[in-house]
Amino acid sequence: MVEVLGFDPGSAAFVAEPYQAYAALRERAPVVRYEPTGQWLVPRYAEVNALLRDRRLGRSYTHRFSHAEFGRPEPDPAHEPFHTLNDHGLLDLEGPDHTRIRRLVTKVFTPRTVEALRPTVAALAGELVDGLLAAGGGDLIAEVAEPLPVAVIAELLGVPAADRGLLRPWSSAITGMFELDPTPETARRAVAASTEFSDYLRGLIRLRRTDPGADLLSELVQAHDEGEALTEQELISTCVLLLNAGHEATVNTTGNGWWALFRHPGELARLRGAVDGLLPTAVEELMRWDTPLQLFERWVLDEIEIGGVTIPRGAEVALLFGSANRDPARFTDPDRLDLARADNPHISFGAGAHFCLGAPLARLELTESFGALLRRAPGLRLVREPSWQPGYVIRGLRELVVEV
């Protein structure tokens, strides 16, 4: 079945170019069983969009069932630090716990609050691009794409500048566990990073109790101490999720987006000629055309029917964001990169209760990052073709070497 469908997330060739396989999947059926992982692949936009909002599915099942009741094995005890950290964060919480914690952090990510950050983000982006220019080029991901969102989200949370270099390695190690079949070494790194990250935040929480600042962590510590039913583990897990999600997707959207532009010189020239007018739609199109989050998993909490196929409780569906964003049933000429695309309801930020909380901030960071590069480095060009990281679920480049 793997060869027939062309869907092979363990293959470097598939990771580099999954879109032909997605087209075959969409042609075949609205849902396809994938035996290597035991999942049901959902490749079409209509079903993915609907299932993201369907409460018969969940990111977790433990709020309703034990592992045994759900027909799932107990987690490996050796992975306990990772699961404790992951299972208490917004991404994997459901029901009232998800609503309660999301309410506490939503105010930091409203469009109005985020817009107030624009001068800070613009200044940071400008400084990073100036550094790239002074060096005559370099790795666009390491020099611009990574440090910008890390600095912004760390500033929001109140992570000291001297400690910010710790965040991306921890984040990369932890998110490795979101891949479909993580190796024992991946699990070992994720467990170590989960322990180190949690211990670091416990120390920072103790500091914020005695010396609070004007940051989100201080506000969450106060909410915990005033009895708003925010446990310390929820506090730690929420901060880790915000730090991880707050930069992983933005980093990879920047890298994937510039690689797309370099492969479409006509569109890049078009954007350079009308930066102010085209940039907002260009950012949305780059997120649609090659989204960094290719697959989003959901558990079936109650039996559900997808395209005439009954999916039982206890099964897992794999919502293929990358495929849905290229579905010709929803997007006109979907394989064409069109930076002026107006009708663009991509699902790169998800939908429903788990819609990305940081979407306004991500859009701001991407707009300022791309804008600074387009305006200050109009001759930016690629030095060599990049290679892809091995991960498929979170898909991004190892590096993107450019010269100015």
Description:
The chain is an alpha+beta fold. The protein has a single domain, classed as Cytochrome P450 (Cytochrome p450). Helix content is about 50%, strand content about 10%. A five-stranded mixed beta sheet has the order 1-2-8-5-3, sandwiched between helices. Strands 4-10-9 form a three-stranded antiparallel beta sheet. Helix 8 packs antiparallel against helix 10, helix 11 crosses helix 12 (about 185-210) and helix 14 packs across helix 16 (about 275-290). The mean pLDDT is about 90.
Radius of gyration: 21 Å
Order of helices and strands: HHHEEHEHHHHEHHHHHHHHEEEEHHEE
Mean pLDDT: 92
Strand content: 5-15%
Count of helix runs: 18
CATH topology: Cytochrome p450
What's the β-strand tally?
10
Largest sheet: 5 strands, mixed
CATH class: Mainly Alpha
Please state the overall shape, judged from the principal axes of the Cα atoms. Answer: globular
Termini separation: 46 Å
Helix/strand structural class: alpha+beta
Q: Outline the low-pLDDT stretches.
A: none
CATH architect. name: Orthogonal Bundle
Number of domains: 1
What is the spatial order of strands in the main beta sheet?
1-2-8-5-3
Write the layout of secondary structure elements.
Elements: H1 2-5, H2 12-16, H3 19-28, E1 32-34, E2 39-42, H4 45-52, E3 57-58, H5 80-87, H6 95-106, H7 111-115, H8 118-134, E4 137-139, H9 140-145, H10 147-157, H11 167-175, H12 184-210, H13 216-225, H14 232-263, H15 265-272, H16 275-289, E5 295-300, E6 304-306, E7 309-311, E8 316-320, H17 321-324, H18 359-376, E9 381-382, E10 401-403
